[in-house]
């Protein structure tokens, strides 16, 4: 299994044939901090800087969509000081992004239930989304208070309500129709899912959308994830044979 915990050589990437959509599970912030005798909050701060660097690089190379797992529905179980630190970093990032969006022309969207966030954070998320409507560059989707199962349940509930009120017909339900009820409506499914940190699981991330995604797992912790590591993932992806359940005839 060539994708599994193998340090790929720094191969050449064909930047004319990039995947349209790359998704990243930003894992390893806490372990990165622990290895250095630092509080977990320091790991999240370092991870936020890595996200900034990788998002900028994705824009530079012409990637269309980048989706990152920033905060899951299960992350509320973490110590309050850690949750508060993460939310503080998000606030700082959004404030800086709003100032720089005209220059960088990065579209920003959010997948997840934002209602538990503070009114200030919700307003900042809405402001970045509104500004983004005018841009056509890379779209960065931030999964915030997001869970794949929760997303599917919410979509099913909304679809059932539409059926009950005559706006939808269950006899004509298709995957394409159902996909419109997901947070990712209008965004192509990820071609490549990258997981730093060495864990080999989806962790409730984009369960519906990742059905035929390629995976790249590396032991590199997220704060140490670099442009070079992203290039390794892209090069590995470009050597895959995507069959979507079919058979390639030789």
Characterization of this structure:
It is a single chain. Strands 3-4-2-1-5-6 form a 6-stranded parallel sheet, sandwiched between helices. The longest helix is centred in the middle third of the chain and has 25 residues, at 80-104. The protein has 7 helices and 6 strands, in the order βααβαβαβααββα. It has 250 residues and is an alpha/beta fold. The protein has helices at residues 29-35, 40-61, 80-104, 119-132, 148-164, 175-179, 227-238, and strands at residues 21-25, 65-72, 107-111, 139-146, 192-195, 214-217. Helix 1 (29-35) packs across helix 2 (40-61) and helix 2 (40-61) packs parallel to helix 3.
Can you give me a brief rundown of this structure?
With 250 residues, this protein is of the alpha/beta class.
Topology:
Elements: E1 21-25, H1 29-35, H2 40-61, E2 65-72, H3 80-104, E3 107-111, H4 119-132, E4 139-146, H5 148-164, H6 175-179, E5 192-195, E6 214-217, H7 227-238
């Amino acid at each position: 299994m060539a994708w599994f915990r193998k340090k790929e050589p720094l191969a050449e990437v064909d930047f004319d044939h990039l995947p349209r959509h790359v998704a990243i599970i930003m894992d390893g912030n806490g372990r990165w901090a622990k290895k250095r005798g630092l509080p977990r909050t320091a790991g999240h701060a370092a991870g936020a800087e890595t996200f900034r660097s990788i998002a900028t690089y994705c824009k530079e190379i012409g990637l269309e969509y980048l989706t990152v797992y920033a905060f899951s529905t299960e992350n509320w179980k973490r110590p309050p000081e850690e949750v508060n630190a993460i939310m503080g970093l998000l606030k700082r990032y959004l404030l800086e992004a709003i100032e720089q969006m005209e220059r960088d022309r990065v579209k920003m969207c959010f997948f997840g239930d934002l209602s538990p966030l503070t009114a200030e954070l919700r307003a900042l998320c809405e402001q970045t989304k509104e500004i983004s409507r005018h841009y056509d560059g890379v779209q960065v989707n931030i999964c915030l208070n997001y869970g794949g199962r929760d997303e599917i349940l919410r979509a099913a509930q909304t679809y059932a309500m539409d059926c009950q009120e005559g706006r939808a017909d269950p006899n004509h339900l298709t995957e394409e129709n159902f996909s419109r009820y997901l947070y990712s409506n209008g965004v192509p499914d990820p071609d490549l899912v990258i997981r730093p940190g060495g864990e080999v699981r989806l962790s409730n991330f984009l369960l519906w959308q990742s059905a035929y995604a390629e995976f790249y797992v590396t032991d590199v912790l997220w704060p140490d994830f670099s442009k070079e590591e992203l290039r390794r993932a892209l090069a590995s992806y470009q050597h895959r044979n995507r069959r979507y359940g079919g058979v390639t005839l030789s």
